[in-house]
Amino acid sequence: MHKLIASRFLDRFLVLRPGQTHGMAVSEPRFDELQVAASEGAMAPSWLIEAARKSWAVEIGSAPLHETVLVRERSRFGFSRGSYELNLGCNYDCPFCYLGVKKFEGLDAEQRVRLLHIMRDAGVVWLQLTGGEPMIDPGFLDVYGLAYRLGMMITISTNGSRLWKPEILAAFAQMPPYRITVSVYGATAETYDETTRRRGSFKAFIRGLTAAHEAGLRLRLNIVVAKSNEHEVSEMEALADSFNAPHHTFTNMSPTIYGGPETLPAQSERFRRQRKPFTGCNAGHTFFHADPFGIASICKVGRDPSVNLMEEGLEGLSRLGPIADSLMLRTGGCSGCQISGSCFTCRPLAKLYQEAKAPLHSYCQYGGR
Cα separation of 164 and 58, whole Å? Predict the structure, then answer.
């Protein structure tokens, strides 16, 4: 199993250590040197041996380079990040879930292998595995293991309820993730279970969070504020601090990915925040999202138009850039707006709000004027 990853990342070349936050930039000639050494079965160059020892206390000089460093092939595509929604199924039933109806379905094992190879060949270095709840998927460890072996730095978005399972912790010990992002829905069993609408969910969450912390895994907590838990925001933040985990607080509810309004009543009006001005993003250009069926879209919000990677393969990704540019145009419900240049909401998200017939003030900073 590789100890380091060498890869192109956008217009740079990096050497990375799985499970670690810091990497090392190298010049293109040095990256070429690593590619040649890996292909010829040569030993690691002295500069990399010393850098690995200094940066990560890792020894790579006692074996041929290809046994300790995974040197990835350059991709002619410009994608560096991606997300893969293994399934929409979840063991929770939160009223604000943007996925709407959470059916447990998707690609079979063989198709998942093909999808991950497409993502690797597209240049994806940082990969987010998400759902639904990815860890309840029977094939989660197969997907995770292959993504790791293909040379991806993996972030897992989870509710934490399965993080205590021995087979999962064993896999993470052998193949460390870049980060585990755990959603928080309450600081007490009463509030948490009410929010998830699953009795015993808080107990499983704390058990998983504790196990991950004790295993030394890198955690980040996403505190999701809704009507049902708005009285425990400070307690949820204190919970994050007790695990020495950085946290981010999310307060604005969005419609479902189908433009459904059923999530919006869960909004805590007291904690609704004004978004920052939207100045563009890399969706569809250096990032893409794949749903449970291998349908690629520019992101989790702007899902239509899309590209069926199982039918079109790697080449289909070349269409995402123009799709992204077209989706960002202020059309439909926003056409004719004279101040759209300072809008706080990206066009695909605004479209979902409009389809949900949401109040204008919920997504447009000029809605109350």
Answer: 28
CB atoms within 10 A of CB 73: 12
What percent of the chain is modeled with pLDDT above 90? 85
The structure tokens listed for 80 are 């560096």
Whole-angstrom distance, CA of residue 176 vs CA of residue 154: 8
Give the other-Cβ count within 10 Å of 49's Cβ. Answer: 18
Tens-digit pLDDT profile for residues 320-348:
999 999 988 766 667 666 666 667 788 88
pTM here is 0.94
Please say if the pLDDT value at position 47 is more than 90. yes
How far apart CA 260 and CA 352 sit, in angstroms, is 8
